[in-house]
Amino acid sequence: MKILVLGCKGQLGRCLNDQLKNTDHEVIYTSRQQIDIADFEVTKSKSLEFSPDIIINATAYTAVDKAEEDQKTANLINHLAVKNIADICNQLECWLIHVSTDYVFDGNSNVPYKEDDETNPQGEYGETKLKGELAIQASGCKHIILRTAWVFSEYGNNFLKTMLRFGAERDELSIVGDQMGCPTYAQDIARSIVAIAPKLNSQKDYGIYHYCGDQPCSWFDFAKEIFDQLKMYDQISTPTIKAVTTEEYPTLAERPKFSVLDNKKIQEKFDIFPSDWKVGVESALKRLVKD
């Protein structure tokens, strides 16, 4: 199978590289230097030249707060460029695997969100990601939209790495304790995509699937788990952490208070189980401390 990965230098892209290198697939990895998805013509010409069976879009504008001020760029990358990729996939008659977000929901639920629950994004990031989803569906291309949440790994910029950096600089940290979600290890997302790819064969597979961590927690709980595991490495000191409310930690973009996703559909369809995020923290820390 011939696979084109867009965004190979990002967090998920690097994890896809880790997971795909042990397969027999012919994989073409492209960074922004090779294919800038904001350049529609280059994206189209190079994709048509490669003629893959699957395009995995691991590229996104993920700066949630910055998106409030830079709406044009967020919309270009998360919506218009995604529409272009979907149209290309339709022309090639190839599959598109696209990664989306829990931020398409408003966070007012108290039960895990299912794929067909009503969307109501509260900020520009979620709004542009939802527009990208709708553009894929309207294109008619063969597609899997994988919504995930609170992504972390040993690569890129993410909550785990931010905690390690702040923990090394400060004795005490204040972490939001009243927003609930499911941390998701990016290596597990990549593994799931690799597992799904060979199973795609009919229109019945089209659609949106949720994939995230197995146990809901708050950002405070997430941070506590990180620092509790870090204590196993005797040479590394850890800060004291305290829980604060969303109101005590204002941000430019509103975050969903409850952002838990229901994983049942992907489990039943593809036999994919939720990410054991605590094991993911352990794996990421091992690699980061070793480095």
Overall shape: it is globular
How many strands appear in the DSSP assignment? 12
Which regions are unreliable across 5 or more consecutive residues at pLDDT < 50?
none
Distance, first to last CA: 33 Å
User: Quick one: CATH superfamily of the domain at 2-157 and 183-212 and 261-276?
Assistant: NAD(P)-binding Rossmann-like Domain
Helix content: 40-55%
Q: What topology, given as strand order, has the largest sheet? A: 2-1-3-4-5-10
Radius of gyration: 19 Å
Strand content: 15-25%
Overall pLDDT metric: 95
CATH class of the domain at 2-157 and 183-212 and 261-276: Alpha Beta
Second CATH tier, the architecture of the domain at 2-157 and 183-212 and 261-276 = 3-Layer(aba) Sandwich
CATH topology descriptor of the domain at 2-157 and 183-212 and 261-276: Rossmann fold
3D architecture notes:
This protein has a domain at 2-157 and 183-212 and 261-276: NAD(P)-binding Rossmann-like Domain (Rossmann fold, 3-Layer(aba) Sandwich). Helix 6 (159-169) packs across helix 8. The protein has 291 residues and is an alpha/beta fold. The radius of gyration is 19 Å and the shape is globular. It has a six-stranded parallel sheet with strand order 2-1-3-4-5-10, sandwiched between helices. It has a two-stranded parallel sheet with strand order 6-9. The chain has a two-stranded parallel sheet with strand order 7-12. The chain has helices spanning 11-20, 40-50, 66-69, 71-92, 124-139, 159-169, 186-196, 219-230, 264-270, 277-290; strands at residues 2-6, 26-30, 54-57, 95-101, 142-148, 151-152, 172-176, 180-181, 184-185, 207-210, 217-218, 240-244. The chain is built from ten helices and twelve strands.
